[in-house]
Design a protein that fits this description.
Layout (H helix, E strand, L loop, with lengths): L1 E5 L4 H16 L3 E8 L7 H7 L1 H9 L3 E8 L2 H9 L5 E3 L7
Length: 98
């Protein structure tokens, strides 16, 4: 089972990554950690890995493979496109009602 976990580099997304990792471990699968950036943003793969460094290290210790993916474009469109690439589940964090 491959779990797609979207991130906006926030704490809520980091918590979602923990859940995605747990599900993937239980199902002997992996996680695709996905972040989409607008053309004007300067987010790099290093920023993605830095935002979730502690969690990524913990998942690696547990034997969960995490593939970080960074795409440029409208985030909703890019998430839908990535979801069509054989993912069984989508996990996303939320900040809740504002």
């Amino acid at each position: 089972m491959n779990v797609l976990c979207t991130t906006d580099l926030s704490l809520a997304a980091d918590i979602a990554l923990s859940y995605a990792g747990h599900v993937a471990k239980c199902a002997a699968g992996g996680v695709t950690l996905f972040h989409a950036v607008a053309k004007k943003e300067t987010t790099a793969m290093a920023d993605l890995e830095k935002a979730h460094a502690e969690n990524l290290a913990q998942l690696a210790k547990q034997g969960v493979k995490v593939l970080p993916v960074l795409r440029e474009g409208a985030f909703m469109k890019e998430i839908v496109t990535e979801a069509a690439n054989g993912h069984s589940l989508l996990v996303a964090g939320t900040h809740g009602v504002r």
